[in-house]
Specification:
There is one protein chain. The chain is 48% helix and 10% strand. It is an alpha+beta fold and 394 residues long. The chain folds into 3 domains: 7-84, Double Stranded RNA Binding Domain, CATH 3.30.160; 97-191; 206-392, hpI Integrase, Chain A (Orthogonal Bundle). It comes from Fulvimonas soli. Keywords: DNA integration, DNA recombination.
Length: 394
């Protein structure tokens, strides 16, 4: 419909039926339009931009009146006929405006990350990159030498692991912003010289293992059983500490782990060897007496209600993730095949073939038994079926 777009037309144009719209083309300025819908009255312009028809919105009434829209249309159409695409300009402006903090929120909202992982992301950004959080990614991406220099300064002040970890997080967050706004500069972490730290090697010779086995028996029963559970399963600290009695099925010899590293999509059933079943059965029997029906298998008088800190000076550094290394090493020495070990450790599939293989707890239980017997032997401990705790070998 053709008509001069006036304030009177904008205010009095009849509403169309639901789901429909009416377009008014201005008779005095080619390419200037008013579109009326049941809920809005909006101003648009349309013109060829480098050989392509482009339509862009100027604004809505009443925030913009007819005179303001006409002035904006005149200026915008001049630019469009000169080759400027206002839609692209707006997109670039949004890209220039997104900050590191906004990209971090975008990244954390888009991925099914555990609360612990999200806290780690925020901690690293706030601890090492706090002055960057409200700076635009475009500004950071354009300062490649400054990004490299920040990595170097964090290395000098806090160590290589902290620097590498902070910038792996920054790299991931920047990439998420780049996916949202492709006009951003390339990821500046391409100019960062990572230290490429190797995985920590845990040295646990026979005499150290036997000293550990003797020392662990002298701990508080809950902490004693937690450390033995971790060395007999290789389970990560958080999953072990947060193990619940409600996830334990002693009848079928399984412990369900609902939220391991990687979140609920990586949930699995841990097969229990005889020693592990006796250990957890003992914990279930003891917990009501010691902790008034705590839901946790390893309860403590803490804010969370369970053991959270596993450091133990009596154990000479063999705690936490070091026990995962120890379990893997001793399980291989015991003869557990690498494929089955991957499943016992709940490692993600590392190749296409592993993605096709689905191994159940029943198959894995015999390998868990093999590992448990060998590990207890290396610790100098003797386990009698149906009894817990184990005792030192004479």
């Amino acid at each position: 419909m053709k008509s001069k777009i006036t304030q009177s037309l904008v205010e009095r144009a009849p509403k169309p039926e639901p789901g429909k719209s009416v377009l008014y083309a201005d008779t005095e300025m080619r390419g200037f339009y008013l579109i009326v819908t049941p809920t809005k009255r909006s101003f648009y312009v349309q013109s060829l931009v480098n050989g392509r028809q482009v339509r862009t919105k100027l604004g809505d009434h009443p925030a913009m009146d007819a005179k303001q829209a006409r002035d904006a249309a005149r200026q915008t159409l001049v630019g469009m006929r000169g080759g400027v695409n206002p839609n692209e300009e707006r997109r670039r402006a949004r890209a220039r405006g997104i900050t590191l903090r906004e990209a971090l929120d975008l990244h954390l909202a888009a991925k099914p990350l555990s609360p612990r992982t999200k806290d780690d992301y925020r901690y690293n950004c706030e601890q090492y990159l706090a002055d960057w959080l409200d700076r635009p990614l475009a500004e950071l991406g354009g300062d490649r030498s400054g990004v490299r220099d920040r990595h170097r300064r964090i290395t000098e002040r806090h160590g290589a692991p902290s620097a590498d970890n902070a910038f792996r997080i920054f790299r991931a967050v920047y990439n998420r912003g780049l996916r949202e706004h492709p006009d951003l500069p390339p990821n500046p972490c391409g100019n960062v010289d990572y230290h490429g730290l190797r995985r920590r090697k845990v040295d646990a010779p026979t005499d150290r293992l036997k000293a550990w086995g003797k020392a662990v028996l002298g701990l508080h029963p809950v902490r004693r059983d937690l450390h033995l559970f971790m060395v007999l399963t290789g389970m990560r600290r958080t999953s072990a500490c947060e193990a619940r009695a409600s996830d334990l099925d002693l009848a079928s010899g399984r412990l369900h782990v609902p939220k391991p590293k990687g979140g609920s999509t990586r949930a699995f059933d841990l097969p229990l060897s005889g020693p592990l079943a006796d250990l957890l059965g003992h914990r279930v029997a003891e917990n009501p007496r010691l902790h008034r029906k705590s839901p946790w298998l390893f309860p403590a008088e803490s804010k969370s209600g369970h053991v959270a800190e596993v450091a133990q000076h009596e154990l000479d550094g063999l705690t936490g993730h070091a026990l995962r290394h120890t379990f893997a090493t001793l399980a291989v020495q015991a003869g557990v095949p690498l494929l089955e070990l991957k499943y016992l450790l709940n490692h993600a599939a590392s190749n296409v073939t592993m993605g096709y293989i689905h191994v159940g707890p029943e198959h894995l239980r015999k390998h868990q038994e093999t590992a448990s017997r060998y590990i207890l032997e290396q610790l100098g401990l003797e386990h009698e079926p149906g009894q817990w705790p184990p005792r030192l070998k004479e």
